[in-house]
Amino acid sequence: MRYIVETLGAVTAGAAIALTVTAGAHAAPGEFVYRSQIGGPSVLNDLDSDRCYNTPGAAGVLTNDTDMHVAAFPGPNCEGVPMDAETGAFESVVFSR
Distance between CA atoms of 77 and 29, rounded to whole angstroms? Predict the structure, then answer.
């Protein structure tokens, strides 16, 4: 009987940890659509907060259909002084809640 109780306790604890990790890693719904300098829109979706996304050749935002704020950077890998993505050309973005 003791073995069954210990096994059930371990399984329950493992399931709780798995649910916590899965819930924390969930990406935000919605799309971020920006204008590409090579023509046409480009789309980022399933976005994670506080992760840098490179957007080479971005020339302005068409829509930010996420529930997050976006900061744009003049260089790749979110280098440089952050700016409003609506202001023009940028090379990378980071989203935050």
Answer: 23
Between 21-25, 59-63, 93-97, the lowest mean confidence (pLDDT) is in 21-25
Q: How far apart are CA 16 and CA 69, in angstroms?
A: 31
**Number of Cβ atoms within 10 Å of the Cβ of 59:** 13
| pLDDT for position 38 | 77
CA 83, CA 91: separation in Å to the nearest integer? 11
d(CA 69, CA 8): 43
- Nearest residue to 40 via CA among 18, 65, 64, 57: 57
At 56, is the pLDDT very low, low, confident or very high (cuts 50, 70, 90)? very high
